[in-house]
Amino acid sequence: MNILILSIFGVIFILAALYWFPLPGKSFKQIYAKVDDRLLSALQSFRLENELESITVNASEWNYLVTGVGDRTVVFLHGMGGGYDIWWQQITHFKGDYRIISMTYPPIPTLAGLSAGIVAILDREKIDRAYIVGSSLGGYLAQYLVKNYPARIERAVFANTFPPNHMITKRVGKMKPILPLLPEWMVMRNLKQTTAKAIYPASGNSELVRAYMMEQSHGMMKKAQFVARFKCVLDYFDSPDIHDLNIPTLIVEADNDPLVEKELREMLKATYPSAPVETIRQKGHFPYLNAPDDYNRILEQFFSQKAK
Questions:
Q1: Considering Cα of 150, then 155, then 158, then 159, what sign does the dihedral take?
Q2: Residue 162 burial (CB < 10 Å; 0-12/13-18/19+)?
Q3: Within a domain: residue 6?
């Protein structure tokens, strides 16, 4: 009997140790060792020079950056693996002509919850209408905002993203109840593997893309945030009619995006047939990181167009 009890406790201890196994630590210097010194210095300076604001909305704390000058405001929305500073090259480029807002999502598992936080930030900053630029999950969230808060949106960019659909749920929906039960190290290990096998090669072996995503998986992003963002990807809604709403909209895509396959990209264009499309060649899922000049030029042209 004593042996059985000891065995049970031993199994419990091993399982607990596996579940609570800490994430392997890596310093900023180690993660960004292969990144060009100029880019590395720019990112470090951006983080040091910009202090974040905070606001609590429905018991969730939001941290966001507000910077820049101008009569018009641009709101940047990141994807599943990102934060407010993933847009630093766009923020730095546009802050002389636009007011900029960029945030990191708290662990909120619904698009309605994320949208409520974004609108609360706009209200706090006394911004009636804004240009909204969203990539990946951020592009999906941008569509939700256009649908549910059209009076707050002046222009919209749906980038490297997908429209409301049931295809993603059919493929990965079974993970929704399982993902919260997995230990954090296992969730982040999967992100590291996806980065190494798909995201990094598709980016043209961009060391900046690899390092930023590795930093996320080494503790910058928490499991709770990843799980919540995963649930948001599966959060279905009816797509907005951008023509009837008269909201100028641009679609930005990459022709080799490993995370948004061609079928989903074509589905997005079919959902918004009146939206012009900019296709970035061979830059993968994060062209705003590894092709910032091209990306900024695309946004500049779109922002400067006269509304019809």
A1: negative
A2: buried
A3: no
CATH of the domain at 72: 3.40.50.1820
Which strands, in side-by-side order, build the sheet including 249-254? 53-57, 60-68, 99-104, 73-77, 130-135, 153-159, 249-254, 277-280
Q: How far apart are CA 171 and CA 192, in angstroms?
A: 21
> Phi and psi dihedrals of 136, rounded to 5?
60, -125
Question: What is the rounded distance in angstroms from the CA atom of residue 134 to the CA atom of residue 142?
Answer: 6
Residue found under tokens 């994060």: 286
Q: What DSSP assignment string belongs to 249-260?
A: EEEEEETT-SSS
Helices and strands per DSSP (H, E), number in the chain: 15, 8
Distance (Å, rounded) from C-alpha 252 to C-alpha 145?
A: 18
10 domain-assigned: no
> Would you state the structure tokens that stand for residue 60, as one six-digit string?
């969730």
Task: Please check whether residue 252 lies inside any domain of the structure.
Answer: yes
The answer to whether the beta carbons of residues 68 and 98 sit under 8 Å apart is yes
Residues belonging to the chain: 308
pLDDT grade for 26, boundaries at 50, 70 and 90: confident
Average pLDDT over residues 133-138: 98
Judged by DSSP in three states, 109 sits in coil
The answer to whether 73 and 102 are in contact (CB under 8 A) is no
Residue 285 lies in a domain: yes
Amino acid at 15: L
- CA dist., res. 282 & res. 291, Å (int): 10
Label the pairing between strands 99-104 and 60-68.
Answer: antiparallel
Domain span at 37: 25-304
Q: Which tokens in the block code for residue 135?
A: 């990539």
The total of structural domains in the chain comes to 1
Tell me how far apart the alpha carbons of residues 140 and 130 are, in angstroms, rounded to a whole number.
17
Helix (H) or strand (E) holding 161: none
pLDDT tens for each residue of 83-124:
999 999 999 999 999 999 999 999 999 999 999 999 999 999
Q: Which residues pair with 162 in a beta bridge?
A: none
